[in-house]
């Protein structure tokens, strides 16, 4: 497809369960970002990849959160032992680079995670 | 995590009215961006500002990058029904790829 694709769109997990959220960025986009958006809030940065390299993971809230992008394309955000406070929409965005600058980041529709 | 201060939190207006919202930060940013988010969708970029003092228009939308680099505003003229949604500002620092978003302004048009 032409845009950033995220799956699943909705995920309900029991507390303590592990989940994996997938992001397919726009083809050719070097940079990939994950954001967490709690209900009624703006998105908050989690982590950033340039190709397969994770350059910034300062926003990951705990060591239960792990992200990877092994081949520099598809990325997976994994949350271990989910807690109720993990309930949020997880947004993925991608952009390509012109020189040293990232261009506009395009967002996917997000995955809504509900932990019960 | 840090979120920028955005006001107003919500607006109820009639079709055809002009709208103004702003965003302030305690930190300096090199780039200011304005996004619109519809229910169940990701944010979509409306306007990007790259220089302090810059005033940029995109159709009925006008945005400015504050001189102090710590604030920005967005104006929408002659609002129409499709303007309904949540508007977010976002700042990007020097050499810092991540975006810091505002708390959002929810725009509702009263029939």
Descriptive notes:
The complex is a heterodimer of chains A (116) and B (111). Chain A has strands at residues 5-7, 10-13, 19-24, 31-37, 44-50, 53-56, 65-68, 75-79, 88-95, 97-98, 101-102, 106-107, 111-115. With 116 residues, chain A is mainly beta. In chain A, the strands form three sheets. In chain A, strands 2, 4, 5, 6, 9, 12 and 13 form a seven-stranded mixed beta sheet that branches. Chain A has a four-stranded antiparallel beta sheet with strand order 1-3-8-7, with no helix packed on it. The model of chain A has no long low-confidence stretch (mean pLDDT 93). Chain B is mainly beta. In chain B, the strands form two sheets. In chain B, strands 2, 4, 5, 9, 10 and 11 form a six-stranded mixed beta sheet that branches. Chain B has a five-stranded antiparallel beta sheet with strand order 1-3-8-7-6, with no helix packed on it. In chain B, β4 and β5 form a beta hairpin. Chain B is globular and about 45 Å long. The interface between A and B is medium-sized, with 24 and 21 residues.
Low-confidence stretches of chain B: none
In DSSP terms, counting alpha (H) and pi (I) runs of 4 or more, how many helices of chain A? 0
The tally of beta strands of chain B, per DSSP, is 11
Give the biggest sheet of chain A: 7 strands, mixed
- Oligomeric state of the chains in view: heterodimer
The total strand number of chain A stands at: 13
Specify the overall morphology of chain B: globular
- Which class do the helix and strand fractions of chain B yield? mainly beta
Helix content of chain A: under 10%
The percent of residues in helical segments of chain B reads: under 10%
Q: What is the radius of gyration of chain A computed over CA atoms, rounded to a whole number of angstroms?
A: 14 Å
Query: What order do the SSEs of chain B take from the amino end to the carboxyl end, as H and E?
Result: EEEEEEEEEEE
Strand content of chain B: over 45%
Identify low-pLDDT runs of chain A. none
Measure the end-to-end span of chain B. 37 Å
Largest interface, with counts of residues having CB < 8 Å to the other chain, equals: A-B, 24 and 21 residues
The tally of helices of chain B reads 0
């Amino acid at each position: 497809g032409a845009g950033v694709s995220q799956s699943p769109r909705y995920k309900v997990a029991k507390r303590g369960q592990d989940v994996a959220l997938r992001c397919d960025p726009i083809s050719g986009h070097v940079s990939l970002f994950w954001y967490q958006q709690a209900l009624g809030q703006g998105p908050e940065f989690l982590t950033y990849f340039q190709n397969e390299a994770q350059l910034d993971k300062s926003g990951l809230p705990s060591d239960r959160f792990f992200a990877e992008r092994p081949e520099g394309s598809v990325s997976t955000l994994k949350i271990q032992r989910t807690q109720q406070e993990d309930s949020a929409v997880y947004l993925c965005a991608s952009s390509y680079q012109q020189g040293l600058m990232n261009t506009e980041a395009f967002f996917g529709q997000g995955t809504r995670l509900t932990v019960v | 995590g840090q979120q920028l201060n955005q006001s107003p939190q919500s607006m109820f207006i009639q079709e055809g009215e002009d709208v103004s919202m702003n965003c302030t930060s305690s930190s300096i940013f090199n780039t200011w961006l304005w996004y619109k988010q519809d229910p169940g969708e990701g944010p979509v970029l409306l306007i990007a500002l790259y220089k302090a003092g810059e005033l940029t228009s995109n159709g009925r939308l006008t945005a400015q990058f504050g001189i102090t680099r710590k604030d920005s505003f967005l104006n929408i003229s002659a609002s129409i029904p499709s303007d309904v949604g949540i508007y977010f500002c976002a700042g990007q620092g020097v050499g810092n790829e991540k975006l810091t978003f505002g708390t959002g302004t929810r725009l509702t048009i009263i029939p």
